[in-house]
Structures are given as C-alpha cells and as structure tokens.
Amino acid sequence: MIQRLIFSVLLVLLASASLSASAKPFPEDERIPLDLRRTTLVVRDLEQSLALYRDALGMRPAYDNLIRTPRDAQTDEEAERSLRLAFLQANDDFVGVLGLMEYRKPRKEQPVSDLAFEPGTIVLVFNVKDLDQRWEDVIAVPGVEVISEPSQTNYPSYDGKGTIPVMVSVIRDPDGFVIELNQLLIDELH
C-alpha cells in the first residue's frame, strides 16, 4: 500500500515536471494532499557534510540539534542512543529541505558502492545558477569525488520541439551519495 502510494506520488511529480519546470506552486485547485518536505541523508560526519551542502553549495541551516535517548540525558555518555540532525534549505522553507543525520551512539557505518548509478542509488539533483563559480569550492571539500566535470548536455525539450541546454556535472559526496549539479543555459523552460 505504501509502495503504491509512493509510486503514485512519483508519477504525479514526474507528470507535473513535464507540464512546467518552473519553481512555482500549483494553483490550489490542482494540488494533491501531499508534499515531499525533506530528504534525509544518514552521514558519517555531519561537519564534513555541512562543508559541502552549507559552505560550498550555499544551503541555509534551518535546524541543528542533538537528540538523545532518554531525552533527559545531558551528554552522549549518559545517553543510550544519540544522533545529530540538521536541516538545510535552498529557496523554500517547506519543501525541498535536506536533512543530514549522524548517528553518534551507537555509531553506524554505511557501505559505499563504486557504481554511481545503480538500482537503489539516490541521486540528488541541484540546479545552480553559478556552477562555474561553485565548482572549485565543491570539489575542494575533503572526501568529494568527481564523477564527471561540468559539460554541456542537450536534453529533449518538454514539448519535443527543441532541446534544453544544461551544464551537467556529477560528484559523489563524502558519504557516497551521488549529486548532479546542473545549470540551465536558458532563462526559462517551456
């Protein structure tokens, strides 16, 4: 049931992307009763992740807290479990939020695959307006791996009557998450 709901939501999101690629909300009478608010990445070192997402990419911090169990534990030593959770925002405070979660106690390690695009891979796609200026800051973050440097790709347009020129680059963040950093080379998509 949940998988079917998620699949339906993804289809709606894909269909809506083909109708309009602008970043404006749907009119109230076209909205569905669901928003994808946040994607949370489980990371090894939250500070290292902040160096990429906050410092190099420019996302704004919205929340950063330690969460301990039991809740009255004052230190990680007193706690049975402890994690740090941070939320970062791009241009909206309600949707498109990126969560970063670091398990502190007990530590949890995650495997990293050598393949960039395989089933089960999460690919974060960011549109940036200044890829040429951000690129050096992004690849200077320790642990970032360049999969492909910025290069122009022409995608078929939504109406099938032309192309959409995009500078596309792909990196892997310090925890192995694949990220596309794209810059549209046209002002508006039709």
What is the gist of this entry?
The protein is an alpha/beta fold. It is 20% helix and 36% strand.
General description of the model:
With 190 residues, the chain is of the alpha/beta class. It has a domain at 36-110: 2,3-Dihydroxybiphenyl 1,2-Dioxygenase, domain 1, CATH 3.10.180.10. It has three helices and eight strands. The strands form two sheets. Strands 1-4-3-2 form a four-stranded mixed beta sheet, covered by helices on one side. A four-stranded mixed beta sheet has the order 5-8-7-6. A hairpin with a 6-residue loop joins strand 6 and strand 7. Mean pLDDT is 83; it is low at 1-21.
Topology, pairings included?
Elements: H1 2-19, E1 38-43, H2 46-56, E2 60-69, E3 81-89, E4 97-105, E5 123-127, H3 131-139, E6 145-156, E7 163-172, E8 178-184
Radius of gyration: 19 Å
For the biggest sheet, the summary is: 4 strands, mixed
**So what's the CATH class of the domain at 36-110?**
Alpha Beta
Shape type: globular
CATH superfamily of the domain at 36-110: 2,3-Dihydroxybiphenyl 1,2-Dioxygenase, domain 1
What's the tally of helices? 3
Structural class: alpha/beta
Assembly type: single chain
What's the SSE pattern?
HEHEEEEHEEE
Distance between the termini: 35 Å
- Unreliable segments of 5+ consecutive residues: 1-21
At CATH level 3, the topology of the domain at 36-110 is: 2,3-Dihydroxybiphenyl 1,2-Dioxygenase, domain 1
- Tell me the β content: 35-45%
Round the mean pLDDT to the nearest integer and report it.
83
- Helicity, as a percent range: 10-25%
Spatial order of strands in the largest sheet: 1-4-3-2
E-strand count: 8
In CATH, the architecture of the domain at 36-110 is: Roll
